[in-house]
């Protein structure tokens, strides 16, 4: 223990020293880039002492030392990760200092201090910005109590002074001018209209629909639809003018006054304890006709439009982000006021007016927050000009994913100045300090738990009287059970969710043959704290086997959240009844492999869904609910689909918070999980079974888009499988491919036709490209199914009697090899359903090269490029990918992410050392870049990013070139 404590002290001291030195260096270079280039003042960078200090500090973060420390008892594991990150940054900085020292030493007049211009030329501004941003991120992890270094305290102070400035910093004139290409925003794409006399005028409604469809997203209304509607005996008092309760009367008068006039300002704040009903009240006001009538009085003859948004931390990215908020608000406000669209998006509108139908179809609108903010301000401006008044109802500010002060400042800013008379904001949040400081004394507000006692009493009394057993018991009590209900409301302490769950428990555990006094016994057995109540329901009131079922259900829900989050598929963030039915059944492994496709009919669906609903309620005691999503448009909804597609959701955010963040809850559930259970394997199996037992009528067709969302989910679940002792991943994946092929209406005259082939580029490219050999195997490679691909390739190689004709060999030779598919996403990319390339996949495929089978080709194998049709190799594709990633800005400076530079450099190392990649290979020039050699690519990356991993690769390749490796025959066009 003493040795570990001593090692921990060494690591902490080294982290503090590395951070301090790194911040000092960033301060010096930052100031140099913001100094007048004509100033004679030199940059104060003492190279030898700085290098010696940094060397010593980094040495204290050696891998052996850090590994020996482990996570301190009773603490989170961040300090270990922080140490590794600091070591990586320290090594990268030493590389930069080494280069600067070399450059200074080679100058005709070496100086101990660099002049400012020289330092700026050697250390680019992009690099400095990235360093300061990275250090800012690391300082957040570093505990303030550990700032025992005066160097670190002073340096961190200088760093914090410009944290916001870094985000918006412009590139100074003397810095590296090489720009990085980024995805164009809607504003960028359409800011320069291209007139053409040949283009016909497009009907305005088509352009309106184009913009509105671009703003919309699938989960836009999901949260609002899932909010518990106000009980018919609650909340109506808000609009009554004759109230005996003084607190209610005061709230009613203030809220109605705010709705119908400008007297109380533009913002009204609803707050309350978790579970007190804030979302229900916000939704109630948003849709209530009396609230709408009061807003019309405020408008005084002007047009009034409303929009609502309900933040949801359990939902998609759009449901918890500022971009999602703005897109939803713009969509709602503009849908009813189409004439406002041209002035809201003037640049986009001007471009669309001169765009052909084909060009418009090819456009994909991207919506950065800045563009959406500009559009929103433009909408407010034109609304004022046209005498239109706007009221927004925004629920759950505490569920916003980001800095809460940012969202507060946004709402304050848009409602200030001239907007204040034309805009109202009804906001709700938990009573966190940041919201209390912003709203408690500055705007009219409502603390919901202070006025909800009457509503809670009415709700509880009505619900208890709705069941015959509890109604009869209340009738036998003095006063009809009023004292019991009052006691229940008092114990709830303003939390409506507690009342709801308590009533459910009384209904479940009391029967007509029990003594009425048992109601009191049950009520007083329930903890008043929500977390304690959840703990009782899940862990204390269930047997060990029942908790195991609860754990399995929870892990399935979490597995889907993880996969849907990766795929950016907000529509599939929660599981359907039909998915869960097949995922929970312990006896379905054999069925998944043996069943034939056969439609399931209503009675079977109804009975299965009813059994699932009972099971969910028993295991989670009402903490989960089955929600039927509303369908819009012309989608066909059968009664079978309505049942099967009901989705499992949390009854309230507090339930998810407890399950995900509650002290020890996840670990406790994981400890009860069956040892053989893997949620991702179960959900993969579930998809196979749902293919074989469809709810809708069985139909063979060629509409891959209909299947694609489910295919992407299943393949991604397959990639996440970790607990597969029975080796079921490969047979399940193959059965999925086999069943989808059964559904696929193949073209009899096309021997290469396969559903997976349609996932590779548009038809125009596929029609001219070389055949895709084994398209599903290639698709599995793109999805990163490392174990499956390696096992499948090995099995095909070892198949007895396998042979290929000369024609088949030629087809395989021309086709894109698996290695190329495996490196397609070598560097990070946003918004893709495919993962970044996996070193283990590369390692496995390279290991199988020893069999010399045509099934798996090596790095230097020449094939016909799928896009260009010209000669290519997997190695050249890798080099081109790296060069393109640099140009497009896909590689980070000071990359401490294990899935970043460290990952792709390992892949390149495997290509060189294990695969014998041609180190003399050459990439020919193209429209973007000049001709470059393999070593030239690494030199370019080394000089740009200064990463230690890239330096090692470069040195490794140089050594192999000197030893005569490679032939340099193949060049890529």
Q: Keyphrases for this structure?
A:
globular, DUF7791, 973 residues, Rossmann fold, 5 domains, P-loop_NTPase, 5-stranded parallel sheet, repeat, NACHT domain-containing protein, 5% strand, mainly alpha, 3-stranded mixed sheet, NPHP3-like_N, 47 helices
3D structure, described in words:
This protein is mainly α and 973 residues long. It is built from 47 helices and twelve strands. It has five domains: 2-168, no CATH class; 204-226 and 235-450, P-loop containing nucleotide triphosphate hydrolases (Rossmann fold, 3-Layer(aba) Sandwich), CATH 3.40.50; 453-512, no CATH class; 544-706, no CATH class; 750-972, no CATH class. The strands form four sheets. The chain has a five-stranded parallel β-sheet, sandwiched between helices. Strands 11-10-12 form a three-stranded mixed β-sheet. A two-stranded antiparallel ribbon has the order 6-7. Strand 8 and strand 9 (871-872) form a beta hairpin. Residues 69-80, 144-151, 163-199 and 631-636 have low confidence and may be disordered.
Q: Output the CATH topology of the largest domain.
A: Rossmann fold
Query: Unreliable segments (pLDDT under 50, ≥5 consecutive)?
Result: 69-80, 144-151, 163-199, 631-636
Radius of gyration: 32 Å
The share of residues in extended strands comes to 5-15%
Number of domains: 5
CATH uppermost class of the largest domain? Alpha Beta
Strand order of the largest sheet: 2-3-4-1-5
Assembly state of the chains shown: single chain
Distance between the termini: 61 Å
In CATH terms, the superfamily of the largest domain is: P-loop containing nucleotide triphosphate hydrolases
What is the helix tally? 47
Helix/strand structural class:
mainly alpha
Which architecture of the largest domain per CATH? 3-Layer(aba) Sandwich
Q: Based on CA inertia axes, which overall geometry fits?
A: globular
Q: Using DSSP, what is the number of strands?
A: 12
For the biggest sheet, the summary is: 5 strands, parallel
How much helical structure, as a percent, in the residues? 55-70%
Average pLDDT rating: 83
């Amino acid at each position: 223990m003493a040795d570990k404590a001593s090692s921990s002290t060494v690591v902490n001291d080294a982290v503090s020293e590395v951070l301090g030195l790194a911040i000092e260096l960033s301060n010096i270079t930052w100031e140099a880039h913001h100094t007048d280039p004509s100033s004679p003042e030199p940059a104060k960078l003492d190279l030898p002492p700085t290098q010696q200090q940094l060397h010593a500090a980094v040495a204290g973060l050696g891998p052996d030392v850090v590994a020996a420390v482990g996570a301190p008892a009773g603490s989170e594991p961040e300090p270990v990760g922080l140490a590794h990150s600091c070591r990586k940054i320290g090594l990268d900085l030493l590389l930069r200092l080494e280069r600067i020292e070399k450059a200074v030493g080679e100058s005709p007049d070496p100086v101990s201090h660099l002049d400012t211009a020289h330092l700026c030329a050697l250390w680019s501004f992009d690099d400095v910005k990235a360093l300061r941003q990275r250090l800012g991120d690391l300082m957040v992890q570093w505990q303030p109590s550990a700032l025992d270094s005066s160097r670190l305290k002073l340096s961190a102070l200088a760093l914090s002074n410009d944290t916001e400035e870094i985000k918006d910093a412009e590139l100074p004139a003397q810095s590296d001018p090489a720009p990085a290409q980024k995805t164009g925003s809607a504003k960028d794409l359409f800011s320069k209209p291209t007139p053409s006399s040949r283009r016909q005028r497009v009907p305005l409604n088509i352009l309106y629909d184009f913009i509105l469809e671009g703003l919309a997203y699938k989960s836009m209304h999901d949260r609002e639809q899932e909010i518990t509607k106000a009980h018919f005996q609650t909340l109506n008092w808000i609009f009554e003018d004759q109230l005996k309760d003084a607190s209610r009367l005061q709230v009613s008068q203030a809220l109605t006054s705010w709705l119908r006039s400008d007297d109380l300002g533009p913002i009204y704040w609803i707050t309350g304890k978790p579970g007190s009903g804030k979302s229900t009240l916000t939704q109630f006001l948003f849709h209530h006709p009396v609230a709408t009538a009061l807003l019309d009085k405020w408008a005084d003859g002007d047009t009034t439009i409303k929009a609502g948004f309900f933040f949801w931390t359990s939902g998609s990215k759009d449901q918890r982000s500022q971009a999602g908020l703005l897109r939803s608000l713009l969509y709602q406000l503009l849908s009813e006021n189409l004439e406002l669209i041209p002035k809201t998006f003037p640049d986009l509108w001007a471009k669309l007016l001169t765009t052909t139908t084909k060009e418009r179809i090819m456009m994909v609108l991207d919506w950065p927050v800045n563009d959406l903010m500009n559009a929103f301000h433009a909408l407010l401006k034109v609304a004022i000009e046209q005498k239109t008044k706007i009221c927004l109802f925004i629920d759950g500010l505490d569920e916003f994913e980001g800095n809460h002060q940012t969202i507060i400042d946004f709402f304050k800013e848009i409602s200030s100045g001239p907007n204040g008379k034309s805009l109202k904001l009804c906001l709700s949040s938990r009573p966190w300090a940041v919201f209390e400081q912003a709203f408690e004394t500055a705007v009219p507000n409502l603390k919901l738990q202070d006025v909800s006692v009457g509503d809670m009493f009415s709700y509880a009394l009505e619900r208890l009287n709705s069941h015959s057993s509890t109604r009869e018991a209340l009738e036998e009590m003095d006063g009809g059970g009023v004292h019991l209900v009052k006691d229940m409301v008092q114990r709830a302490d303003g939390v409506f969710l507690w009342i709801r769950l308590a009533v459910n428990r009384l209904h479940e555990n009391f029967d007509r043959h029990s003594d009425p006094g048992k109601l009191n016994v049950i009520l007083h057995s329930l903890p008043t704290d929500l977390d304690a109540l959840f703990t009782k329901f899940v862990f204390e009131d269930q047997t060990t086997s029942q908790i195991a079922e609860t754990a399995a259900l929870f892990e399935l829900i979490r597995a889907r959240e993880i996969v849907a989050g990766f795929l950016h598929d907000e529509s599939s963030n929660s599981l359907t009844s039909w998915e869960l039915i097949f995922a929970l059944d312990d006896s379905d492994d054999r069925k998944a492999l043996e069943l034939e496709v056969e439609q399931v009919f209503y009675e079977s669906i109804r009975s299965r869904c009813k059994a699932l609903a009972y099971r969910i309620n028993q295991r989670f005691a009402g903490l989960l609910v089955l929600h039927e999503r509303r369908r819009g448009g012309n989608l066909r909804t059968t009664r079978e689909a309505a049942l099967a597609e009901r989705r499992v959701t949390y009854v309230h955010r507090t339930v998810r918070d407890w399950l995900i963040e509650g002290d020890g809850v996840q670990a406790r559930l994981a400890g009860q999980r069956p040892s053989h259970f893997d949620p991702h394997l179960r959900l993969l199996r579930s998809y196979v079974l749902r293919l074989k037992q469809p709810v809708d009528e069985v139909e063979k067709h060629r509409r891959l888009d209909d299947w694609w969302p489910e295919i992407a989910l299943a393949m991604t679940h397959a990639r996440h499988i970790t607990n597969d002792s029975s080796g079921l991943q490969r047979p399940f994946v193959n059965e999925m491919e086999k069943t989808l092929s059964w559904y696929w209406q193949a073209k009899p005259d096309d021997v290469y036709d396969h559903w997976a082939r349609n996932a590779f580029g548009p038809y125009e490219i596929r029609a001219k490209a070389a055949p895709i050999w084994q398209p599903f195997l290639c698709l599995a490679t793109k999805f990163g199914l490392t174990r499956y691909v390696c096992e499948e390739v090995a099995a095909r190689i070892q198949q007895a009697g396998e042979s290929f004709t000369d024609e088949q060999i030629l087809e395989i030779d021309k086709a894109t090899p698996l290695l190329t598919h495996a490196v397609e996403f070598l560097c990070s990319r946003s918004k893709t359903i495919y993962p970044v390339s996996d070193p283990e996949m590369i390692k496995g495929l390279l290991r199988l090269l020893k069999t010399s089978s045509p099934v798996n080709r090596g790095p230097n194998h020449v094939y016909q490029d799928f896009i260009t049709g010209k000669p290519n190799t997997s190695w050249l594709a890798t080099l081109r990918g790296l060069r393109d990633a640099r140009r497009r800005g896909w590689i980070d400076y000071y990359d401490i992410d294990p899935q970043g530079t460290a990952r792709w450099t390992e892949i390149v190392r495997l290509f060189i050392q294990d695969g014998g990649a041609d180190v003399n290979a050459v990439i020919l020039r193209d429209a973007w870049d000049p001709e470059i050699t393999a070593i030239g690519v690494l030199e370019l990356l080394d000089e740009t990013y200064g990463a230690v991993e890239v330096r090692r690769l470069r040195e490794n390749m140089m050594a192999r070139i000197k030893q005569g490796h490679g032939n340099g025959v193949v060049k890529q066009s």
